């Protein structure tokens, strides 16, 4: 497993995978950076079918925290990221959906 893969956390949900990476706010370009007291967290993520390659167009639905979102702990950021991923799968997210993954046959 690569260092990049080790940073991503995966949750299986309703036949999809939700992948999230937790980042330290203000240091998003330094994945894997050690945290320091007072650091805030943010996240990026994607939803895909099991085994799909998220690097291929149409194989994943990417999402991220709103620009102003910052969480006091990695656990809070992860909880929110998984919640957003579930809302995408459930069809309750206001802007994102897995419908193209389902209808595209990917």
Automatic annotation (TrEMBL):
Q: In which domain of life is the source organism classified?
A: Bacteria
Q: What's the name of the protein? A: Uncharacterized protein
């Amino acid at each position: 497993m690569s260092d990049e893969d080790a940073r991503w956390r995966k949750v299986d949900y309703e036949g999809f995978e939700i992948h999230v990476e937790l980042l330290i706010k203000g240091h998003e370009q330094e994945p894997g950076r050690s945290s320091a007291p007072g650091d805030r967290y943010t996240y990026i993520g994607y939803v895909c079918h099991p085994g799909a390659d998220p690097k291929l167009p149409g194989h994943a639905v990417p999402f991220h925290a709103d620009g102003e979102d910052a969480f006091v702990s990695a656990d809070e950021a992860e909880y929110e990221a998984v919640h957003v991923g579930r809302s995408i799968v459930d069809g309750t997210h206001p802007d994102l959906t897995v419908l193209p993954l389902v209808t595209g046959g990917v």
